[in-house]
Design goal:
Layout: H1 2-22, H2 29-49, H3 64-79, H4 93-106, H5 116-130, H6 138-144, H7 148-154, E1 169-170, E2 176-177, H8 206-220, H9 232-255, H10 262-275, H11 277-282, H12 288-301, H13 307-323, H14 327-339, H15 346-355, H16 363-378, H17 390-409
Antiparallel strand pairs: 1-2
Helix pairs in contact: 1-2, 3-5, 5-7, 8-9, 9-13, 9-17, 10-13, 10-14, 12-14, 13-14, 14-15, 15-16, 16-17
Length: 433
């Protein structure tokens, strides 16, 4: 049918051209050439009309490898209910919109363009889902569906929220390592049972704490709200674990933009952690603003003088510390961010002081850092974690602090809750250096 249409169109063009040329009584040789030229143009125009037009977004120079990679992205988006339609290897408007929905779901910036880390997490989750690894998390899959595989990569503790056993980790290069961590047993001399009391007390584990928190959240049927709050300790712990999960993901995204190995990043972050030890020691007795200045000075002594580079290392070390369950490194990352003027990161310091992550527990001092963070957010500062839920986050933290203060005032304070806090914070004793 299409060929008949093209042939008919060409015939019409020829007849129209002949009618024009025969109406000229004395056509010169040049006129004949012009007529033939016009005939050729008409023929080409009619033939081109019969050809199908390229699909929007089509790239003639796209390699077969790139097209297959795009198909993989589309297959993964479809699998996780971000529909793109037929996986044709062309990332058009519908695919870009689906990518944006995926990014928003995962807490990334909604750009419609995948970073390497975002693509690796998407494809890695899809491949894990295809291999049937979701069967290891039956409760999570029943509650969340296939997208649970994405959440499990972003936060290894996510399956525990539904009662499943969590395991594995998300590497900074965007790849997923699903091999569970198996501590190696220490060699025992002569088969004797070791004296546990002779060993140093194990440091508080943020990862272990968050596994307990998510279990409690699941048992209670959801997170603690700001209204009618009854458990301020659980409420603050939930916000910490949310921040931890977000920091791990953000760290991976930032690090993926640099040609540097995980091992090298760990060395750099450990150097920063060592350089900020004096700042960590001063936390319980120092106001947040002074701590920020101290962190800036300590960071500069380690070569962190450029603002952009400092923020890059701060975000990387914060998330890397949590991924390695190195509370000291994560705390150092948060302090580096405070040194850049990012006051909302004081919330992280508050969590660490309250729980004793990487620093001796000092619940009373934690209040100052929580207050500094929520005050900065109320004044329009850029949120550090989950920007879309910032108002709710501020309300929950404020309600938890107020309830803890009320319980303290009535003598009902518990060992795990915060110490009293007044409406106006009392000045802390200056630190002697």
């Amino acid at each position: 049918m299409a060929q008949h249409f093209v042939a008919k169109s060409v015939s019409s063009a020829i007849i129209a051209t002949l009618m024009v040329t025969t109406s000229v009584e004395r056509a010169t040789a040049g006129g004949a050439e012009a007529a033939l030229g016009a005939l050729g143009l008409l023929m080409l125009n009619e033939i081109s009309r019969g050809k199908p037009r390229p699909k929007p977004g089509y790239k003639p120079g796209m390699s077969a490898v790139q097209r297959q990679q795009n198909r993989d992205v589309q297959h993964a988006l479809n699998a996780f209910a971000f529909p793109v339609g037929v996986a044709d290897g062309v990332l058009g408007k519908r695919s870009r919109a689906a990518i944006g929905d995926y990014q928003a779901y995962m807490g990334y910036a909604r750009t419609g363009q995948l970073t390497e880390a975002e693509r690796n997490m998407l494809i890695g989750g899809w491949q894990a889902f295809q291999r049937g690894e979701g069967s290891a998390y039956p409760a999570m899959m029943a509650a969340v569906g296939p997208r649970g595989m994405l959440n499990a990569q972003r936060d290894p503790g996510f399956p525990a929220r539904f009662g499943d056993r969590a395991g594995g980790s998300y590497d900074l290069d965007g790849t997923w390592d699903n091999e569970p961590f198996l501590p190696q047993p220490e060699r025992q001399a002569d088969g004797l049972i070791p004296d546990l009391q002779a060993r140093d007390q194990a440091s508080t584990s943020a990862a272990a704490r968050c596994e307990l928190v998510v279990q409690t959240t699941r048992i209670q049927g959801g997170v603690v709200p700001a209204v009618n709050m009854t458990n301020p300790d659980q409420a603050l712990s939930e916000k910490f674990c949310d921040a931890r999960s977000f920091a791990i993901t953000q760290s991976g995204s930032v690090a993926a933009g640099f040609q540097v190995s995980d091992a090298e990043l760990e060395v750099h972050c450990q150097s920063i952690t060592t350089g900020l030890q004096s700042v960590v020691a001063a936390l319980p007795d120092t106001q947040p603003a002074q701590v920020a200045r101290m962190a800036q000075t300590a960071g500069a002594s380690r070569g962190l003088s450029d603002q952009t580079m400092t923020m890059t290392y701060g975000q990387i070390c914060l998330g890397l510390g949590y991924r390695l369950d190195n509370a000291e490194m994560a705390l150092a990352g948060a302090l580096v961010m405070m040194g850049t003027g990012a006051e909302p990161y004081a919330e992280v310091v508050g969590h660490h002081l309250r729980e004793g992550f990487g620093v001796p527990a000092a619940p009373a001092a934690a209040v100052h850092y929580y207050t500094s963070a929520i005050t900065a957010l109320q004044e329009g500062a850029t949120a550090a974690f989950e920007p879309s839920t910032t108002p709710e986050r501020v309300q929950v933290i404020r309600a938890a602090l107020q309830l803890s203060a009320q319980r303290a005032a009535t003598g009902g304070v518990r060992p795990a809750t915060l110490a009293p806090v007044n409406a106006t914070l009392t000045p802390l004793a200056p630190v002697q250096h």
